[in-house]
Structure formats: structure tokens, C-alpha cells
């Protein structure tokens, strides 16, 4: 039977050496096993309940396209480029070693487990109820870049270690869970009812931008920088520990809850009917600016500096304990604790 076009319960095993081009197309419950060595190009297309196992070595290019309940297992070594596109309830398992580029696109109920080692670039795009899991075995190590884009009720779980860059963009009812360790940069942008949970450890930079009824939960430890921008009815709970810088900007009926411990700098700017409860402990600097009917509640402990500026019918409640400095400036019918101008009620509790 011809190895290039096979039908009906066929097994295909292909091994190539030394600058070979392999094109394989299979239909109807076929198993394809491909092993290539030394600058080989492999093109595999499968239809209808096919299992594809591909192993490549030494500068190989592998484009794979699968349709209709296909299982794809790909392992690559040494500067390999893998491009995988799957449709209709496909399972893709990709493992790469040593400076590999992996591009994965999946549609309609696809599961993609991806494991990469040693300076790998992984680009994953998923559509329509796809689960992306890249933490199976050993996660990401050593200078990895992970850009992820998801659409339509996708769950993304990303865990990274050791100088990793993670860029996640999600649309339409997506859940994103990101955990990073050791000098990681995380950039997350979400649209339309997305849940984002981010936990970072050890000198991580987190940048989160969310739109349209998004819930963001951010927890950071040990010299982390967190920048959060939210628009349109967003909830942002943020907890930071150990010399963290938090910058939060919110627009349009946003609730921001910020708790910081141990020499944290918090900068909060809110617009348009925002509620901001802030609690800080242990030598924290808090700078808060609010506009247009905002409620700000600030509680600080242990040598904290709080700077609050409010405009246009803002309510600010500040409670401070233990050698705290609170400079407050308010304008236009604001309720404030310290210094006020223009028909303002002032109250302050200090110990």
C-alpha cells in the first residue's frame, strides 16, 4: 500500500535520514509513527480518529494538521520547528527540548498539554472550549517565552520557572491561572467576563489589563512589581508581600481591594464610582487619587505614609496607627479625614 495515501485501519511507520521530505495523509482510524533525523521536513495530515506520533531530531520542520478526534503526540530535539493545527476534539501532546519553536492552533474542544525545556518559544492559540495545560511533567525552564491567545470559554493554566516571559490574551469567558517563579514577566490582557488568577514569587513583573466584567486575583511575594489596569465593572483583589510595588488604575464601577505587607509601595488611581479598600502593614507608602463619586477606605499600620487626593463627591475614610503621616487634599463636595476644601466633612481616627 502506498505510504502517502492510506485508508481503513492502516499502520504507517516512516523513518527518514539526511535531508528528506515526507508527506503523509491518512484517513479512517490510522496510526502514523514518524521518526526523522538530520534536516528533514515532515508534513502530516490526518482525518477521522487517527493517532499520530512524531519524533524529530536535529533542525527538523514538522507541520501537522489533524481533523475529527485525532490524538497527536510530538517530541522534538535540537532546534526543531513544530506547527500543529487541530480541529474537532483533538488531543495534542507536545514535548520539546533545546531551542525549539512550537506553534499550536486548536479548535473545538481540544486538549493541549505542552512541556518545553531550555529556551523554547511556545505560541498557543485556542478556540471554542479548549483546555491548555502546560504544567504536565516539568513545566517551563530556562529562558522560555510563552505567548498564549484563547477565544470562547477557554481554560489556560500556565506555570513558569527561571526567567520566563508569559503573555496571555483571552476573549469571551476565559479562565486564566498563572503561577510564576524566579524573575518572570507576566503580561495578561483579558476581554469579556474573564477570570484571571495570578500568583508570582521572587522578583516577578506582572502587568494585567482587563475589560468588561473581569475578575482579577493577584498575589505576589518577594520584590514583585504589579501593574493592573481595569475597565468596566471589574473586581481586582490584590495581595502583596515583601517589598512589592503595586500600581492600580480602574475605570467605571470597579472594586479594588489591596492588602500589602512589609515595605510596599501602592499607587491607586480610580475613576467613575469606584470603591477602593486599602489595608497596609509595616512601612508602606500609599498614594491614592480618585475622581467622580469614589469611595476610598484606607487602614494603615506601623510607620506608613498615605497621600490621598480626591475630586468630585468622594468619600474617604482613613484609619492610621503607629507613626503614620497622612497628607490629604480634597476638592468639590468630598468627605475626607484630614485636609479638605469646598463643603467637605472632615473626620480622622489616629493613634
Automatic annotation (TrEMBL):
Protein name in UniProt: Uncharacterized protein
Amino acid at each position: 500500500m502506498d505510504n502517502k495515501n492510506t485508508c481503513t485501519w492502516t499502520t504507517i511507520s516512516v523513518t527518514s535520514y539526511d535531508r528528506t521530505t515526507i508527506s503523509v495523509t491518512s484517513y479512517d482510524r490510522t496510526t502514523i509513527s514518524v521518526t526523522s533525523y538530520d534536516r528533514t521536513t515532515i508534513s502530516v495530515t490526518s482525518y477521522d480518529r487517527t493517532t499520530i506520533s512524531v519524533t524529530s531530531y536535529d533542525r527538523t520542520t514538522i507541520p501537522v494538521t489533524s481533523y475529527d478526534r485525532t490524538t497527536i503526540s510530538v517530541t522534538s530535539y535540537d532546534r526543531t520547528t513544530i506547527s500543529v493545527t487541530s480541529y474537532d476534539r483533538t488531543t495534542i501532546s507536545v514535548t520539546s527540548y533545546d531551542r525549539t519553536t512550537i506553534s499550536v492552533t486548536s479548535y473545538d474542544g481540544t486538549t493541549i498539554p505542552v512541556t518545553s525545556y531550555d529556551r523554547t518559544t511556545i505560541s498557543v492559540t485556542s478556540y471554542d472550549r479548549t483546555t491548555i495545560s502546560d504544567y504536565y511533567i516539568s513545566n517551563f525552564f530556562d529562558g522560555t517565552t510563552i505567548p498564549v491567545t484563547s477565544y470562547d470559554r477557554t481554560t489556560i493554566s500556565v506555570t513558569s520557572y527561571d526567567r520566563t516571559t508569559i503573555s496571555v490574551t483571552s476573549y469571551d469567558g476565559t479562565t486564566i491561572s498563572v503561577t510564576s517563579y524566579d524573575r518572570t514577566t507576566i503580561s495578561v490582557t483579558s476581554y469579556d467576563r474573564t477570570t484571571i488568577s495570578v500568583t508570582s514569587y521572587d522578583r516577578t513583573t506582572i502587568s494585567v489589563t482587563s475589560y468588561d466584567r473581569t475578575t482579577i486575583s493577584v498575589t505576589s511575594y518577594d520584590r514583585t512589581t504589579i501593574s493592573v489596569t481595569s475597565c468596566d465593572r471589574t473586581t481586582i483583589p490584590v495581595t502583596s508581600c515583601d517589598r512589592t510595588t503595586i500600581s492600580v488604575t480602574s475605570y467605571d464601577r470597579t472594586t479594588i481591594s489591596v492588602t500589602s505587607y512589609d515595605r510596599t509601595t501602592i499607587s491607586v488611581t480610580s475613576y467613575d464610582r469606584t470603591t477602593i479598600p486599602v489595608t497596609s502593614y509595616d512601612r508602606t507608602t500609599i498614594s491614592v487619587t480618585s475622581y467622580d463619586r469614589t469611595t476610598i477606605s484606607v487602614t494603615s499600620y506601623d510607620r506608613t505614609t498615605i497621600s490621598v487626593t480626591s475630586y468630585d463627591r468622594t468619600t474617604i475614610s482613613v484609619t492610621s496607627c503607629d507613626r503614620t503621616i497622612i497628607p490629604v487634599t480634597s476638592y468639590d463636595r468630598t468627605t475626607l479625614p484630614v485636609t479638605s476644601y469646598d463643603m467637605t466633612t472632615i473626620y480622622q481616627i489616629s493613634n
